[in-house]
Structures are given as C-alpha cells and as structure tokens.
Design a protein that fits this description.
The complex is a heterodimer of chains A (about 170) and B (about 160).
Chain A lengths: L15 H23 L3 E5 L3 H9 L22 E5 L6 H11 L5 E5 L1 H5 L21 E3 L6 H16 L7
Parallel strand pairs in A: 1-2, 2-3, 3-4
Chain B lengths: L1 H9 L4 E4 L6 E6 L5 H8 L5 E10 L3 E9 L6 E9 L4 E3 L8 H12 L2 E3 L26 H4 L9
Parallel strand pairs in B: 2-5, 6-7
Antiparallel strand pairs in B: 1-2, 3-4, 4-5
Classes of the chains: A alpha/beta (about 170), B alpha/beta (about 160).
Chain lengths: ~170, ~160
Amino acid sequence: MINEEPNADEFSYPGLGEVMFMKAENFINSVLSWGRSRSLWPLTFGTKCCAMEMIPFGATKVDADRTGTLFVGDSPRQADLILCSGTISKKMVRRLLSAYEQMASPKYVIAVGACNISGGLFHDSYNSIEGIDRIIPVDVYIPGCPPRPEMFMDAVLALQKLIRENKEQGH
Amino acid sequence: METVERLKSEFSSSLTSLPSTNANETLLLLSENEALKKLVKSISTEFDILFTLLVVDRPPEAFELNYVFSRYRDSALLTIRVNLNHDKPVIDSIAKILPSAEWEEREAYDLFGIKFRGHPDLRRILLQDDWPGRPLRKDFVVTDEIRNWTGLDLKF
C-alpha cells in the first residue's frame, strides 16, 4: 500500500516541520532580496546622449553609491542590472543581447530614454529598434529625452522596492 | 587651375567643365566611365586625398557619383562627376590608388549597392552583413517587415 492515492476530501493541516520550513524559506528569500536590492551593480550600456545623464547620476550631487549602485567593473559578468540607454540600432541588438546573456541571473533591466522605450526620435527609421522590450524583458522604464539624473535615482529606488517586495524576481 | 588645363588637354573629348557655386572648387563632368582610373592616377600626384564620395540617386536614368578630391597644400577641391547606369551600377575602384577611397566606396556599396571592380575588401561598412536592401535608394520603402527585422531568431 505504498503508492496509495491521498484522499482529496481529507484536509490536513501542515505539520510543524513543514511550517518551519516555509517560514525559514520566506525569511531566507526576504534576506536575499534585501541584499540584492542594496547591491545592484549596473552595466552601463550607453550608446547615446542618455549616457551623458548617466555620468551625473554616478557623480557627487546625485550619488548613486548611496543606494549601493556601484559603478565598478562595468563588465556584464559582474553586473546585476543593465542600464540600457540610447538608440539601439539593428547592428547593436546582437551586442546588447550578447551582453545580456553574459550576465548572471537574477538580472534586471532599466530602459532609459525615449529611444529605448519606443524608438523615440528615430521611431520610423530603417535601422533602429522600436523599443528594447522587443528583445529583452524590461523591469523599469525611465521616460525623457534625455531624462534628468534624478530620474535614474528614482528608477533605481523603484526597482529596489519591487525586488524587496518580491514582485520582481529577475530573469 | 593648371591641373584642369592639363587634364582637359589629356582627356579632351570626355571632360566638360560645369559651373560650381564654391569659389574654391572645380567641377568636371567625366562622360567616359572607363577613363576614371586613368584620370585619378594622373591627378593623384597633386591631390592627396579623396575628401568625400557623394552619391545621388536619379532614377530611372542614373546614379551620379561625385568624387571630391582635396590636397593639404591649399585645400583646393576638385570634383569629378560620373554618371552610372541605374540598372547596372558598376565602376572601377580607385582604392588602390588613393587608400582613403576604400571606406568611401564601401559606404556607397552598403547604402546604394554600387559595385566597385577591383576593390580589395568590398563588404558592408555600416549595416549588418545580412541586412535586406539598399536603404538610401529612392525606390526603397520602409515597410513593417524592414521595421521589425532584427536578423535574430527570437522566441517569445
């Protein structure tokens, strides 16, 4: 009688061990997501003028380091977050995808600027991608042409909040 | 310019002077395409660089190629204009005579589809290698197919 089907009508409460395991799992997950949200190392994939606004985001006035967003390494292998800004041309798509695929999971994407979200100024061109969410999944969008450095900070804080609330699991 | 006088005596039948808006520039129309290589060879002692290569699409008759030569000595400009057949745009490459022509010719090949005979490395320079079409031609239309093309096999 080993492989007997459990009776569906019979409801049983989870045992103490099971409850302890679930509690511990929740706790570990919350600690992990707290840690992840406080150390988002970005890969700066800047192709155009939005990348100029990314410089003051890392500089003194709007200090990205306060949130744990450290501009170190700047290599896809060490990055958790890709700050993709500027027009992505059809030739650049393969480079973007190759950088994205090299990042370790969980990884997050912030799309910066009008060109990145919808094609922007170059939306009807023969050689631009109308929004990178056609290629890779995007978590937070920053509108603007180009957006202010403060909006980068806003986007990072929004992403941190999503990660802490376990709404954003990464990809 | 004494070069122009010399060229006119050398290529008397096929060279015509055209009026130019720029006082520093001399504009010459070459009617015989085969003579281009010989002409460039003869001016390459005085004009060091190919400043730019301008292509104008004039359907249905011709592609108009403007070779703008320049020199370091007094920055004088000499433009040689050549008309190509629109159905078969083929011309001799001058990249072996003036190395600065190599990338200009690759750009013209990339965006207009003009073929340069004897070019050392005739590949696309700006667009992806498997890009469909020649985008700066007048008959090129940006369709949805072109707009959505990435050349990637993406599965969602």
